[in-house]
Structure formats: C-alpha cells, structure tokens
Amino acid sequence: MKIIAVAMTKGGVGKTTTAVNLSHGLALQGFRVLLVDADTQGQCAKALGTEFDLTLTEVLEGTAPVVEALTKARPNLDLIAADHHLSRAALTIARREQDGHRVLAEALAPVRDRYDYIVIDAAPGFDAIAVNVLGCAHDVVAPAALTPAAMAGVLDFVRHVGSVGRHNANLNLRFLLPTFLDQRARQSGEMLSQLRERFGSKMCAPIRVNVDLAESFGCQQSIFEYAPRSRGAEDYQRFIAQVLVDSPANAAGAEPKCMAV
Ligand SMILES: Nc1ncnc2c1ncn2[C@@H]1O[C@H](COP(=O)(O)OP(=O)(O)O)[C@@H](O)[C@H]1O
Ligand SMILES: [Mg+2]
Fold first, then answer.
1. Residue having the nearest C-alpha atom to atom 2 of ligand 1
2. Which of 54, 59, 101, 180 is least enclosed, having the fewest CB within 10 Å?
3. pLDDT confidence of residue 260
4. CATH number for 192
5. Which domain holds residue 68?
6. Residue 30: CB within 6 Å of ligand 1?
C-alpha cells in the first residue's frame, strides 16, 4: 500500500488533473485505488461525475466512520469527496493541542489495507489539512506549472515539505512533475532546464498543454475515457509508468512513521 499526495502550494498547476488521472490510470491497470479529495473546492467528484453523501469533513471530525464515506467512482476506484465544509474540519484540527498533523492518517487507517494506492488531492496553501496530507503520505508528487515566476513557489513548497518531514520520517518528495509545457514558448523550456538542474532524478517527463485535459474535466471523465489517444493521455500514461517503477504499491508496507513532535 502506498499513499501518494499530489501537492503544491500554488493553485491552478494541475494537481486535481494529476490526482484524478493518476488514480484512474492506476485503477485501469488493476490496482485498487482510493482517491481522497482534500480540497474545499471538491473538484474530484466533479471531475469524475460521482455523486456522494458523506465527505472527508465528517471523517476528519469523527462524526462518520471512514467506510461510510467511500463512494464507488469507477471499477477499482473509490473516492472520498470533499466540499466547502472541509474548511470547518481544518479549523477543528488546527485547534487540537496534540497530534494535529495525524488526524488524516488515523482517519484513513481502517481502510488503508483495502487499497494498493491511496492518492490524495491536496489543496493549495499551508493549512492544517495540507499539513495532514503531508503527514500521512509516503510519496509526494509536486506538479510545477512551467510558467514564469513559478520557480519561487516550487522552492517554497520544497521548504514546506522539509518542515513537515520532521513529523513524518517516510515522507519523500519523489516526483517533480512539470505541467503546462508549451513547446512553442521559450520560457517553458528555460523553466524546464532550471527544474532539471535543481531536482535531477526527481524530475518526471512533462505534461504538455492539452485542451483534451481541460475538456475531459467538464465532461466528467478521466483523460483515458475522454480522449485515450490524446497527448494528455500519452503524457499521463508515461507518468503512471514511472510511478509504478519508482513508487511501487507493495514497497511501503508499514504506516508512515510519525515522529514525536
Ligand atoms: N496539461 C494541461 N493542459 C491544459 N489544461 C490543463 C492541463 N492541466 C490542467 N488543465 C486545466 O487547468 C485548470 C487547472 O488545473 P487543476 O488540475 O484544477 O489545477 P489545481 O488542482 O492545481 O488547482 C483546470 O481547468 C484544468 O482542466
Ligand atoms: Mg485542485
């Protein structure tokens, strides 16, 4: 079992697109996958067209058992959805005096062994939920949009992962995933080489700008359903192949080791 957080402090960089397509791509390959939406915008259920009753809020607040919040989104793919009430859970967690960074890890514990992969779509920013997402993950996928001025945001995020790493000894910023590559734009290429220089082997092959990725979202389908022969599907397929090699489901085994604060 492997918990992969898709996280970056900046919004609009392709986190939800990556989380949805990574989870569905893994599910299509036969892995049992749980997608957890940890963003108040609740885009995962919209992206997959999944109806839901309970959300991550009730799970984090302890008012519903986690099994009751699991919704079947596709064969092999379950979802725990989110909505704007999640900000309430963030405040509740922030007020906890002890182990505030462990609430999500503890909430997911009863169902974690049902899955090969748990993929968490994190919200932008540094709130209590974002800290919890990093507190329970094994590996982090950090999408970095290839736009001017994005580098500062990426470096900020790396520092943030480093500071949360004090609580979670297993946390690994494993994949830096460049997104919105525009092969005609010089700045895209420049940013890509800067990232390569800084992140070396953590760098994944980039996801190109592809209108099918944006459209699939509106059609409530993953890219593998909406346009399986598109560039978007090709790029995400290549990324998933790298995840399977570098972050195999059976290699993590144990629960992330959280250190005493
Ligand atoms: N590679 C891409 N090419 C074109 N549009 C994309 C691509 N990746 C994401 N998008 C679109 O860009 C917007 C922001 O992406 P999203 O995944 O929601 O980012 P985040 O979750 O980081 O805020 C969405 O409308 C999405 O459909
Ligand atoms: Mg999002």
1. 209
2. 54
3. 40
4. 3.40.50.300
5. 2-249
6. no
- The DSSP H or E segment spanning 190 is helix 186-199
Cα of 168 vs centre of ligand 2, distance in Å, is 24
Nearest-atom index, ligand 1, CA of 43:
18
Residue 260, domain member (yes or no): no
Q: Is residue 259 part of a domain?
A: no
Residue nearest ligand 1's atom 6 by CA: 214
Pocket of ligand 1 contains residue 217 by CB under 6 Å? yes
Q: Where are the beta strands (DSSP E) in the chain?
A: 2-6, 33-38, 71-74, 77-80, 117-122, 139-145, 172-179
Residue 261 forms part of a structural domain: no
What pTM, to 2 d.p., does this model score?
Answer: 0.94
Give dist(CA 114, CA 120) in Å, integer. 16
Q: What is the pLDDT of residues 115-145, one digit of tens each?
A: 999 999 999 988 899 999 998 999 999 999 9
With 90 as the cut, is the pLDDT of residue 86 above it?
A: yes
Report the domain count for the chain.
1
Cross-strand pairs, 72: 78
pLDDT score, position 60: 96
The atom of ligand 1 lying closest to the CA of 207 is: 1
Higher local confidence (pLDDT), 169 or 45: 45
Dist. CA 66–CA 107, nearest whole Å: 7
